[in-house]
Amino acid sequence: MFDVNQIRKDFPMLNGKKMQGHPLIYLDNGATTLKPQVVIESVCDYLTNYSGNAHRGDYDLSHEVDEHYEQSREIVRQFINAKRKEEIVFTSGSTDSLNMIAYGYGLTHLKANDEILITVAEHASNTLPWFDVARLTGATVHYINLDETGRLTLENVQKAVTEKTKIIAVAEVTNVLGYQAPMKDICQFAHERGIVVVVDGAQSVPHQVTDVQDTDIDFLAFSGHKMCGPTGIGVMYGKYDLLKDMKPTRLGGGANSRYNSCGVVTLKDPPYRFEAGTPHIEGAIGLATAMQYLMKIGMNDIHEYEQELRQYCIQKMLQLDNVQVYNPHSMGAIAFNIKGVFSQDAASLFNSYGIAIRAGQHCAKILDEFLKVSTTLRASFYFYNTKEEIDAFIEVCKKGDDFLDAFFK
Amino acid sequence: MFDVNQIRKDFPMLNGKKMQGHPLIYLDNGATTLKPQVVIESVCDYLTNYSGNAHRGDYDLSHEVDEHYEQSREIVRQFINAKRKEEIVFTSGSTDSLNMIAYGYGLTHLKANDEILITVAEHASNTLPWFDVARLTGATVHYINLDETGRLTLENVQKAVTEKTKIIAVAEVTNVLGYQAPMKDICQFAHERGIVVVVDGAQSVPHQVTDVQDTDIDFLAFSGHKMCGPTGIGVMYGKYDLLKDMKPTRLGGGANSRYNSCGVVTLKDPPYRFEAGTPHIEGAIGLATAMQYLMKIGMNDIHEYEQELRQYCIQKMLQLDNVQVYNPHSMGAIAFNIKGVFSQDAASLFNSYGIAIRAGQHCAKILDEFLKVSTTLRASFYFYNTKEEIDAFIEVCKKGDDFLDAFFK
Amino acid sequence: MHSLNDPQLLREIIMDHYEHPRNRGLVDDDSYLKINMNSQTCIDNLDIQVKFDGDKIEDVRYDGEACAICTSSTSIMSELVKGKTKQEAQKIIDNYMNMIYEKDYDPEILEEAIAFQNTYKQANRIKCATLGWNGLVALMKESEE
Amino acid sequence: MHSLNDPQLLREIIMDHYEHPRNRGLVDDDSYLKINMNSQTCIDNLDIQVKFDGDKIEDVRYDGEACAICTSSTSIMSELVKGKTKQEAQKIIDNYMNMIYEKDYDPEILEEAIAFQNTYKQANRIKCATLGWNGLVALMKESEE
Ligand SMILES: Cc1ncc(COP(=O)(O)O)c(C=O)c1O
Ligand SMILES: Cc1ncc(COP(=O)(O)O)c(C=O)c1O
C-alpha cells in the first residue's frame, strides 16, 4: 500500500529543510531528486567501512569492493530487466551515456548521407552529440515531427524514416512536455528496417517500469541522481552484440587487457572496456540502493501515484485564468507560464514561498521553435510529493501578478 | 607538528577495520586512499541537507548548491595554485581528464607526422588515448628513454625531442617506479619549442605541493580518490587559453549557451563547456573538503613524512635476501618481488596478515619491456601509515617462501 | 531621494522600468561599443551598446530578452550613467555593487537603483540585477584598451 | 584419497604441481580446440588446448603465465579429466565448482583437487583456482557446437 506520509519520513530533505522560511516544497524533480536515508547510508558505508578500489588489488578489501560493485550492476540489470549484467555500463550520467553511444557507436557506424532521426523536444544531451557526429561522418540529423500537442507518434516516425535512416534517438519521456513515446512500436518498425533505436531514459526510468527486453530498445541512457541516487553516476545499457561492436570513448586503466609499446591494444569485453579508470564506486552502490528502494515501493505504484498527483494539479491549474498550461494531457513534467510574467520572475515568486520549480528552456533549447514561447516554467513531481504541496503551489500560481512580492517580502 | 597517531583518528578505516582477522594495514595507496571523517561528512551533508542541482533552477536551494560547487572549484584552484578558477574542470577522474586532453586538444591540434612523446612507465590512461589519437591523426607516439634506474631526466627529454614534437605527456611521479620528473625544466625546454606539456598528476598531486604556475605545465590530470576524496571525481587543469582552444569530449546540457535546430551551437566559456550534464556535485564538494584537510596538515609535512616512511622501509627491505627491490632511490611506491614467488601468490600471503598490497602490472603494462619482469608487487604509502605497519610488512616479506600459508591458515 | 522604507514605491519603480524601459533598442552605429551579455546560468540575454565621447558616456542602449529584474535594473543603469564621466559612472557602479553584495554604500547616489536593495534576499537574482551593469563595466574597460 | 585434514599434504600437492606442472606446453596440432583464458582482474594468462575424440577427452594441454594456484589447479585438472568422457569430466567439474563455492561436493571424485578446498577463505583467489577449469568448460561447450 502506497503511503506517502510514511515514504516522506525516509527523506531528510522533507523533514526540516526550509527555503525562505517555508518548509521546502520540491517540484523540480526533473532536474534532480531528493535522496532517501538508505541511499545516503550506503554511500557513507562505502566511504567509511570498505573504501578500497574495485577490479584491483589482491586482497580481501578489494574483493569486497568488487563484489559490491558487481552486485550493483546486477541490481541495475534487474531494474531494467536486461538479459545479462554485462549489458550494464556504469557512466557518469545520462549525458555521458548518450555521448558514449553517439561517439562510440554512431561515429563508427555512420557514413556520409546516413540519417539520424531525433525530435525538437530532445534534451541538449540527446541533440548536440548527434549534431557533432553528423558533422564528423557526413551523416545528417533530421527531425521527426511532433503531433500538434507535442507528442511523438508511430505515424510520424514512419513518415520520417527513409532508406537512409540508421539511428533513431529519442527520449522515452521528454523533459519539458513529458509525453511518453511508443517505444515498443517504434522499435518494431525500426528493427524491420535495420535501424538502431537509442533511448534517452533520463525522465522515464525513474518514474515507471522499464523493461528493455519487452520494448526491445537497442540502447538506453539514464542518470542516478534523477531516481534518488547519487550524482555523477548513470547507466548506459546496450544489447550485448552492439556493445561488442562499439568503441569506448575513454581509454585507460582497466579497459584494456593487454598492450605493448608498439600500440597493439586488446580491449576487454563489455562492460569493462567502457569503464576505464577507477569507477564511481560509491555512486554505483548508491544507485543500486536507490533502485532497491524504488522496487520495494513498486514502480507501478509510483507511476500510478504520480499520475494521480499530476491529474489533481492539472485540474486546478486549468481553472486559473492567469495560467497557461502547455501539456495538460502528457504524463511527465507540467510546462506552463503565468501570463504576462517572465518565467524567471515567476520562479522567484515560487521560491519566496519555499517552492522549488524551474524556469527556462530546460536544456531543450530548440523546443521554442515548436512551442513558440522562448521559456516556460516546469513543475515536476516525484512519488514523495503530496496533494497538500500542490495546493500550496496553486495558491502561489494565483498570486502570479504580484511577482515582485518576492523582492519585497 | 605532524602527529600520525592523531591523524589516524580521523580515518574510520584505521579504527576497527579488519582483514583476515588482523587490523587492516593499508599499503595500496597508489590504487586508492582511505577517507577521513570530514570528507565522509561533507558528502553526506550534501545528500542530506541540500541535494539540489547546480547551475540550474531559480530558487535558493539550487543557488546554495551552486555556491558550494563553485567554492569547491576555488579550493582546487588554491590547492594547485592555478591562476584562475576557470582553469579548473571537474571530471570523473584522471582517466577522464587525460582522455579529454588527448581527444579535446590532441585530436584537434595534431596532424600527420607530428610526434607525441611519452615514456614506457606511463599508466595505461596516459598511453592508450595517445595511441588512438595518433592513429586518428597520423601523428606518431615516441618514447623518451628512461635512465638505467627508470628515471625520466631532462637530458633524455632533450634527446627525444625533434622538430616534429608537439606534445609531451608524462607522469610527474610514475605509479610503479615512483620517480619524480623534473617538470619545471621539461616545461621550460618544451615551451621554447612550442611544445605543450601534459602532466599526469595522479601519483604526485596527492603527495606533494603542486604549483602549476611555478612548473608552468600546460595541462594537469588527477583523481580525487587518490587524495582522500570520493571516487568518480577528478580534475583537468589547463591554461585558460588552451582550454578556450579546446573541444569538449562530452556535449549536452549545461555546456552550450545557445543552439538552434539547424545545428548552430555556441559553447559556453571554460570550464562550463567541459562539464556537460549534471556534474558529480557531492564528489566536487568532497574533494574540496579533502584538499582543505590536506592543506591543514600541510603538503610539505605530508611529503616529508612519507619520504621518511619510505626510507625506513627500503632500508629494512634491502637487508632481506629473498626480496628484490626495483626502485630503492625513487620517492613514490616501492616496486619489489619476493624471489621465486609469483606476485599474485605473494599478495595473497600479505593479505592473510591483513596487509593490502598490490600485485601485477599496475596498469603500466609496457613497463615490463623495461623492468624485464612481467609483474611486481607494489607497496605505496600515505601520510597515515606508520613505522609499526612497515615492521609488520617486513615480517611478512621474510615469510615469503611459505606463500601457501595463506591458503592453509 | 526615494523613501527606502516604502516597498510599494520601490516596486513601482521596478515595474515602471520593466514595462517602459528607457533607452531600449539598439542603434546601427559603429561608434558604439557593443557586447552580448548572456547569463550562463539563466535565461537573460541582452546586447548592450555604449557610446563614449572621450571620457564621457554619451549614450547607453540595450535590447534582448530578460526578466523584470534584469530589464529594469539595466534601464535604471542606463539613465543613471548617461552623460556622466567614466569616473562618475564608476562611483555609481561601485555603490550599486556594494549594495547588491551587502557592503556599505551611499543610497543618495544610486537614486532609483535602490529599488534593488533587497536582491541579496533572493541571491539567485543577483545575476539578473547585475547583468546590464556588468556589461557596462566590460565596455568601459574595453574603451580604455 | 588424501587426508582432508592435513594441510601439509595439501600444500605439497599444490607445490608439486606448481613446480612440476603436468601436461604443460602447447602442441601445434589443429585437431585440438584452443582458447586463451586471461583473467580480466588479475595477471593469470593461460592458453588451453583440448583434443576430443568423439565423446572422450583425449588430451589437455596449457601454457602461459600464472600464479601457483592457477598453475597447479590447471595441472591437476588436466590429469583428472584426461581420458575421461565428457560426462565424467562434467561431474568432476561440477564437484570442483561446488567445493570452490562452498556447496556440497564429493571429495572422493576430486582426488588431488581437494587441495583447493580452502579457496573460499581467500575469495580473491577463486579466479585463479578456476581459470583453467573454466577454459575446459568453454572448450567442452565449443566441441558440442
Ligand atoms: C599514474 C596514474 N595515472 C592515471 C591513473 C588513473 O586514475 P583513475 O583510475 O583515478 O582514473 C592512475 C591510477 O591508477 C595512476 O597511477
Ligand atoms: C530528457 C533528459 N535527457 C538527458 C538529461 C541529462 O541528464 P544528466 O544531466 O544527468 O546527464 C536530462 C536531465 O536534465 C533529461 O531530462
Automatic annotation (TrEMBL), chains A, B:
Catalytic activity: (sulfur carrier)-H + L-cysteine = (sulfur carrier)-SH + L-alanine
GO biological process: cysteine metabolic process
Cofactor needs: pyridoxal 5'-phosphate
Pfam families referenced in this protein's UniProt entry, alphabetically: Aminotran_5
Domain of life assignment: Bacteria
EC number of the protein: 2.8.1.7
Keywords recorded for this protein, A-Z: Pyridoxal phosphate, Transferase
Transferase in keyword set: yes
SUPFAM superfamilies hit by this protein: PLP-dependent transferases
Single annotated GO MF: cysteine desulfurase activity
Enzyme class: transferase
Ranges of residues in domain Aminotransferase class V: 25-393
Family recorded in the similarity comment: Belongs to the class-V pyridoxal-phosphate-dependent aminotransferase family. Csd subfamily.
Task of the protein: Catalyzes the removal of elemental sulfur and selenium atoms from L-cysteine, L-cystine, L-selenocysteine, and L-selenocystine to produce L-alanine.
NCBIfam families the record matches: sufS
Protein name, entry field: Cysteine desulfurase
Source organism per UniProt: Massilimicrobiota timonensis
TrEMBL record, chains C, D:
SUPFAM superfamilies in the cross-refs: SufE/NifU
Pfam families: NifU_N (PF01592)
Domain NIF system FeS cluster assembly NifU N-terminal intervals: 12-93
Alphabetical list of InterPro entries matching this protein: NIF_FeS_clus_asmbl_NifU_N (IPR002871)
GO terms assigned for molecular function: iron ion binding; iron-sulfur cluster binding
Gene3D superfamilies, per the entry: 3.90.1010.10
Single Gene Ontology BP annotation: iron-sulfur cluster assembly
NCBIfam families tied to this protein: SUF_scaf_2
PANTHER family reported in the protein's UniProt record: IRON-SULFUR CLUSTER ASSEMBLY ENZYME NIFU HOMOLOG
UniProt protein name: SUF system NifU family Fe-S cluster assembly protein
Source organism of the structure: Massilimicrobiota timonensis
